[in-house]
Every structure is written in structure tokens, then in C-alpha cells.
Amino acid sequence: MTSTPHHPDLRSQLETLTTEAFRPELAEIDQLPTLDIARLMNGEDATVPAAVAERLPEIAAAIDAVAVRMAGGGRLIYAGAGTAGRLGVLDASECPPTFNTGPGQVVGLIAGGPDAMVTSIEGAEDSPELARADLDALALTADDTVVGVSASGRTPYAVGAVEYARSLGALTVGLACNRDSALAAAAEHGIEVVTGPELLTGSTRLKAGTAQKLVLNMLSTITMIRLGKTYGNLMVDVRASNEKLRARSRRIVALATGAADDDIEHALTATDGEVKHAILVLLADVDGPTAARLLAESGGHLRAAMAAALG
């Protein structure tokens, strides 16, 4: 079990981390005009996509592995503390409206629980035992994927989550922003996006947080593409839970089919507002129940269902 380091040990650890490095050339930044500080910060942010680009092969390999697990009924679970944990919760919470994922299919765990989303409970990050308890509460299985997220790559909560998940046979991914991190080493798929020292020393909600957000966007979005949650670049599994999303649903059906407005309304009515089903009704000239059956038989992949209907 990972133990919490003493303060002198932790200080020496932090001094070796690129994300914690002090930049003497910025020591007078508080004396600069606001626009100059904004330009400096914007220039720093512009370096993040290139750092992510260097890790695309590892990111793609992780996505393919995650998609296989999820296609078999597994869940995608993020685990992190502080900013990293909040980003995981954010990504997970956006999957149901965007991709119509089921309850609990994509989960974000943050050290300290839901209160940590809005209140700093930083001490919780030091407990690998807490990570184990949080995963036990989800009844973690070997079908699931656990993605540990930590800028430093040493956060005990994230490392502990990955170590425990791997011991149970779950797929594990470790996303860090330092080289040779304990988190990446503990995971089956290690992704180290090295964003370098921050504008404000050690403030990893900045470049490191931006990099984590970009990678989590890829993990969830491309996994959902692989699972058939899109048709081309259209969100055909969008859940129309408000007026904006209902309008978007109609627009998606129109873009996919080129059908007239009245036909789109009829198709959406016949399929209880299911965008993917409505597109199949219009393009394959089938009724609602047939569209539902074809999509079920194709595992939700619209192109496969279309081929079956037209073949």
C-alpha cells in the first residue's frame, strides 16, 4: 500500500517535478501590465496542444482498449484529486447528454467525494485507501476501465486507484504531466503529457489542467465514436432533455438525411425522439420498431444498421 510521505520527503519529491519548477524569468510578473501578463499566459497555453500531440500514439492505444471494454459492458471510471478529479467528473457528467450513456456508464471519482467539486478537500488526495473504498463502492470488475489523473503523477489517491483496479484485472490508464511518473508506471497504459513549468509556480490547474482536459476529451469522445455513438461527426445519440437539445436533434436529423421538416417531425415522433432511430427511418424507409430492432442487432452502430436494412 502506498504510504503518505513526510513533509521533507514530499518537498524533495516536488522539487524534482517539472510541473513544480520555479521560473526565475517570471519572478517580476506581478509588476507587468495586465495585457503583458495575458500575452505571456496565452503563449504558455499555446504550447499545450503540441505536448499532447507527442503522446497521440499512447492516447490512441488507450482509447482502443477502453472501447473494447465498454463494448463488452464495462464502465469508464476517472479517479483524481483536486483539479484533476474535477476534470474527470466534468468529462463524465457530460457523457449522458452528449452520447446518451446509461447511468453509471462513465463515472468521475474525486478524492473527498462530491463536496470536493466546490470545496478544497486536498488532504483526501493522500489516501490510496480512500480510492480503494470509492472503487469498492462502485463494485469494480475486470470489465471496467479506471483512468487515474494526476498532474504530478504521484498523487496517492490516483496511483492507489490504478494499482487497486489493476489488481482486480480492470483496464488501467494513468494520465500525468511529468516524465517517469509513478502513475504511468502503475497503469497498463501510461500517458505522460509533459507541459513544463507553470506560469505560476506549481499551479497545475493551468497548462497541466488544460492538457488533462484535452486528453479526457479525446478519451471519451473517440471512445464513443468507436462505440457507434456518432454518425460521421454528428451526435446521433444526443439526449434531447431540453429545448436547445430538441432543436439540435432536429438539426442533426436534417443534416444526416436532408429530409423536409415535416418528415423529420414524423420520424422523431415515430421513434420517441431518438435521433439515431429517426435517421434510420428516413434513410432506410423503415418504421420505428424496425429501426429499433436493426439498431439493437447492430449494437447501436447506425452504419451497420443501415447496411442491414438496405442489403
Tell me the layout of helices and strands:
Blueprint lengths: L6 H9 L18 H12 L2 H6 L2 H16 L4 E5 L1 H18 L6 E5 L17 H10 L7 E6 L5 H12 L3 E6 L5 H5 L2 E4 L14 H20 L16 H15 L3 H10 L4 H10 L3 H10 L4 H9 L1
Parallel strand pairs: 1-2, 1-3, 3-4, 4-5
Helix content: 40-55%
User: Nearest-angstrom radius of gyration?
Assistant: 22 Å
What oligomeric state do these chains adopt?
single chain
Strand content: 5-15%
Structural class: alpha/beta
**What's the SSE pattern?**
HHHHEHEHEHEHEHHHHHH
Enumerate the strands of the largest sheet in spatial order, edge to edge or round the barrel: 2-1-3-4-5
Sheet with most strands: 5 strands, parallel
| Average pLDDT reading | 92
Poorly predicted segments: 1-5
Shape: globular
**Strands, count:** 5
Distance between the termini: 56 Å
Account of the protein in words:
- This protein has 311 residues and is of the alpha/beta class.
- It is built from 14 helices and five strands.
- The protein has helices at 7-15, 34-45, 48-53, 56-71, 82-99, 128-137, 156-167, 182-186, 207-226, 243-257, 261-270, 275-284, 288-297, 302-310; strands at 76-80, 106-110, 145-150, 171-176, 189-192.
- Strands 2-1-3-4-5 form a five-stranded parallel β-sheet, with helices on both faces.
- Strand 3 (145-150), helix 7 (156-167) and strand 4 (171-176) form a beta-alpha-beta unit.
- The protein is globular, with a radius of gyration of 22 Å.
Key traits:
single chain; 311 residues; alpha/beta; five-stranded parallel sheet; 14 helices; 5 strands; 8% strand; disordered N terminus
